[in-house]
Amino acid sequence: MSQKSILKTKSFDFAVRIINLYKYLKKRHGEYIKGQQILKAGTSIGALIREAEFAESRNDFKHKLNIGLNEANESVYWLQLLYAMQYINKKMFESMFQDANELLKMLVASIKTLKNKNQLRP
Fold this sequence. Notes:
Elements: H1 3-29, H2 33-53, H3 58-84, H4 90-120
Helix pairs in contact: 1-2, 1-4, 2-3, 3-4
């Protein structure tokens, strides 16, 4: 399985987990605002990766991946906040935090690869 398809799969699976987390936050805690924030950030990652597939240029591709990286980082923030506020337990936090960090690392690696390829061009 290629890095690209692994990234697509992992970002999609993460989005599903985020949607389920949003539903849990609404039902269990009546929490909408923080839930909507993490919903937006967590589901945007995969959407941006999909958008990047049909980017208009190499720069557009890199730009979309960078925005996805920002959304992944924002997701980590919301997960940390939800855990600190005791909306999610340690097990939920650690599992989702690990997934978000994997996405961060994969996006960073992809962006670095693109930068390195640009530097090799004459």
